[in-house]
Design goal:
Pfam families: GST_C, GST_N. Belongs to the GST superfamily. Theta family. Keywords: Cytoplasm, Transferase. The chain is an alpha+beta fold. It has two domains: 77 residues, Glutaredoxin (3-Layer(aba) Sandwich), CATH 3.40.30.10; 139 residues, Glutathione S-transferase Yfyf (Class Pi), Chain A, domain 2. It is globular, with a radius of gyration of 18 Å.
Amino acid sequence: MPLRLYYDLMSQPSRAVYMFLRLNKVPFEARPVALRKGEHFGEEYKKINPFSLVPVIDDNGFKLTESIAIVKYLIQQRGLPHHWYPTNSPKRLARVEEYLNWYHVNTRLPSAMLIQHLLIIPKTTGKPVNHAAAEKFRQRVATMVTQLEGYFLKDRKYLAGDEISIADIFGACELMQLNACHEHGLYESSTIVKAWMERVKKDTNPHFDEAHQMTYRTHDIYKQIAAKL
């Protein structure tokens, strides 16, 4: 049975796993799960992932429900290039892990919550934008960008060194979410972070653009959406 990927490209972690599989030419059976339709809450999907989240892989009966665990597993199970997750170098590996441990609260949470408050919560509840809450997370994103510039990208081309790793894929997918609501100026204000993002896009295209088509479309129509919220 081929590797199955359950995903929705509205999900940042789904995009990271999808891109990773495409980049490494890992064949997989695509199993889209429409979050906007609530398919992840259905009883059939709960048999696949009781947490009702995406992405998930099913590798011939072996299921994994966390995106970072998924890519680490595939790198080792499929013998993929070490630069993604350098188990052959303790120090380089530690740098990748350093960012991935930092990422959840410092990159993913504020970026995701800013978009939640600007778009997803108002759209799903019909309530107006809570601008005070949005501004709180906007400031947290700004702080995160300063920290990326001053620590993770200081004297480095990529978040964990001079070669692209899974840290860069996960980080870039989170920042790209900001484009959907025209908040990309938060990271583009840093020439260092902006250059890193452009480097990651170049290294991962055409798969980067493929995975972010929905993000680009939302960016193009966001003003129309925002006017109705």
